[in-house]
Amino acid sequence: MENPEALIAEAIDRAHAALLRDMKELEMVGRRASSNGLETLRARLEATRVHLVEHFRFEEESGYMEAVRKLEPRLERAVAQLAEEHIQLLNSLDALRGEIAPMPRANEAVAAKVTAWVQKVRQHEARENHLVQDAFGLDIGAEG
Ligand SMILES: [Fe+2]
Fold it and tell me: Taking a C-beta distance cutoff of 8 angstroms, is the pair 118, 27 a contact?
């Protein structure tokens, strides 16, 4: 019989695995943008935004955040910091999309910028995993 925390941790684990697959794909599309053109990358960034908005909403509304706050009030500030990072990650994604939008073709910096942004997402997700692990005393898997 699983406790509610284990179920939440499992749901987060699954959601993170899906997001990290998406990040891997995005990074690859970014690396190929100089040969394949920017259209695929633009579409991929758009799809990533949709996925990310849905992912963050899940975490904020039905995911770990409320459960961690209730169970471990000492982690309130860490939760607030992670929620703030959700806004920053979406803002930096939009900045990247805005930068790429008018480009006629990819330059070398494009792949590096996509990778740098993906890295920020991975680090954020890893911090979330650690927080959930700390709050629930559980080990969860997916890290970038
Ligand atoms: Fe997450």
Answer: yes
Q: Which residues contact 132 (CB under 8 A, 6 or more apart)?
A: 8, 9, 12, 64, 68, 138, 140
Extract the tokens encoding 87. Answer: 């806004």
Q: Which residues contact 83 (CB under 8 A, 6 or more apart)?
A: 60, 65
Give 51-68 pLDDT, tens digit per residue.
Answer: 999 999 999 987 899 999
Task: Say how many Å lie between the CA of residue 33 and the centre of ligand 1.
Answer: 26
Is the C-alpha dihedral spanning 139, 81, 113, 57 positive or negative?
Answer: positive
57 CA → ligand 1 middle, Å: 10
Prediction pTM value = 0.91
